[in-house]
Backbone:
């Protein structure tokens, strides 16, 4: 079994576990602090992502790519130099950004977010910055060596700590005010990051092939060429993520001001934004663990193939990733669309936000494609093109949100439509850019068959939920419907030849059953 498939499978399993745990976290969070608390948390969270993006400087992808190439040459001195330079860079940035976020928090809360209560969740972000600075470098190192297990385990540990602490911490701080509970939720995430870092450092110490601390500063001083090589990939990559992070940072600000123009009070605007981004969006993004796994594995796999000028392997890996994205994303879309109301009722005790799921789910196939396509662009040294595509999408998204959300007839629905327009546009631009570099066959017939399978499975799931009343319990009806959709979907994929038998045989454990 190839390193690419093995690494992808490990990340898929870890991603599934992580997303399920993350969803449990969201459910506990929503039930603990309510719509308003989730709104405060989600207003501060984009700032957290923006700070993380600046701290990482796009280095995880650059580290992964350069280490994969260095290991292919057997150049372990260069691998050490990559690690030393990366750590020195990210730690230096964290020393600047940690006090900066503390000083800027009052201005951000009162001026930009229009809700002073966001100050407390913003302050809780600061301790995470140096932790993420180191852990991101270590993840990039392991991914570059196509060893996905440490990254996978660290993600699971992080989520377990968050879930364990969230209920206790929010309950302890909620009597003092919902803003303190939202800050406690953010602090639980920071502690999860800390345990994840401890695990990564321990694993690195046990499996490293060279002493990292020996001559650390000498390697850092002599790493100018290494730094330049890393920045060639890191800066455009950071540019893409920075654009997305800045757009997400301004998103709650634009939404808040747009809703104010539409006559919506600040408190109600916070609640509505919480429903969209804290309730509906996590459910819609749940299946993206598949695309994240593919994207993470694609960078070193395609970088290695590209360094050997193996264009046939590049096209094969890309085709493989896109087909898997389509098939897994298709099942996710029909489950979310058909069962939007019952899923929201089960998870949050309310169907509020299900409208957003039905509106956005059909378009999320484009979002699922975005990760693998961007990974291919980065691996082929087209990170700059990916950055430009992301910039265009971010500008258009922000403009659509402002123009629609500020109108009474759209309100918060305008924000949802703007988000859809943004990621659909970026995905189309990424795909067009990849086609300029990589030639591969596009099987239209397979996609038509795929859409037919989605429609048939979705209809069956709806019929099962409405007619097969095996129990009065909503959970049993939902599980019956999902099981029916899943089995029928898999059977029809096999019948139509959309999943090949030889691919099933390559999957660990499952292949042995066949």
Residues:
């Amino acid at each position: 079994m190839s390193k690419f498939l093995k690494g992808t499978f490990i990340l898929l399993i870890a991603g599934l576990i992580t997303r399920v745990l993350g969803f449990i976290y969201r459910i506990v969070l929503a039930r603990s602090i309510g719509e308003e608390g989730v709104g405060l948390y989600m207003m501060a969270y984009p700032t957290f992502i923006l700070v993380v993006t600046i701290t990482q400087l796009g280095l995880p992808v650059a580290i992964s790519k350069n280490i994969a190439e260095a290991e292919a040459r057997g150049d372990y001195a260069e691998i050490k130099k990559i690690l030393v330079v990366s750590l020195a860079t990210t730690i230096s940035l964290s020393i600047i950004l940690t006090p900066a976020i503390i000083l800027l928090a009052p201005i951000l809360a009162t001026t930009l977010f229009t809700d002073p209560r966001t100050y407390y969740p913003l302050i809780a972000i600061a301790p995470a910055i140096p932790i993420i600075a180191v852990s991101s470098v270590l993840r990039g190192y392991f991914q570059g060596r196509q060893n996905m297990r440490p990254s996978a385990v660290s993600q699971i540990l992080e989520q377990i700590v968050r879930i364990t602490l969230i209920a206790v911490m929010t309950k302890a701080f909620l009597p003092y005010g919902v803003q303190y509970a939202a800050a406690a939720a953010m602090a639980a995430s920071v502690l999860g990051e800390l345990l994840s870092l401890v695990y990564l450092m321990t694993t690195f110490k046990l499996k490293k092939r060279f002493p990292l601390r020996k001559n650390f500063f000498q390697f850092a001083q002599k790493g100018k060429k290494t730094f330049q090589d890393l920045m060639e990939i890191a800066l455009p990559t950071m540019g893409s993520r920075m654009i997305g992070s800045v757009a997400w940072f301004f998103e709650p600000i634009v939404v808040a001001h747009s809703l104010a123009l539409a006559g919506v009070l600040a408190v109600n605007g916070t609640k509505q934004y919480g429903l969209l981004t804290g309730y509906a969006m996590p459910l819609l993004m749940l299946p993206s663990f598949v695309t994240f796994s593919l994207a993470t594995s694609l960078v070193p796999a395609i970088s290695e193939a590209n360094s050997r000028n193996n264009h046939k392997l590049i096209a094969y890996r890309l085709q493989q990733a896109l087909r898997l994205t389509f098939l897994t994303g298709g099942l996710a879309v029909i489950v979310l669309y058909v069962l939007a109301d019952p899923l929201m009722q089960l998870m949050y005790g309310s169907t509020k936000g299900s409208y957003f799921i039905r509106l956005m789910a059909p378009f999320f196939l484009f979002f699922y494609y975005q990760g693998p396509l961007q990974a291919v662009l980065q691996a082929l040294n087209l990170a700059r093109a990916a950055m430009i595509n992301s910039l265009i999408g971010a500008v258009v998204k922000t403009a659509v949100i402002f123009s629609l959300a500020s109108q009474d007839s759209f309100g918060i629905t305008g924000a949802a439509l703007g988000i859809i327009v943004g990621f659909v546009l970026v995905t189309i631009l990424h795909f067009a850019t990849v086609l300029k570099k990589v030639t591969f066959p596009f099987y239209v017939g397979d996609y038509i068959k795929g859409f037919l399978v989605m429609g048939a499975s979705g209809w069956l799931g709806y019929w099962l939920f409405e007619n097969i009343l095996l129990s009065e319990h909503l959970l049993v009806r939902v599980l019956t419907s999902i099981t029916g959709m899943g089995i029928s979907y898999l059977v029809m994929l096999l019948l139509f030849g959309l999943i090949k038998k030889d691919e099933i045989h390559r999957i660990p454990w499952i292949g042995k059953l066949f």
Observations:
- The mean pLDDT is 79.
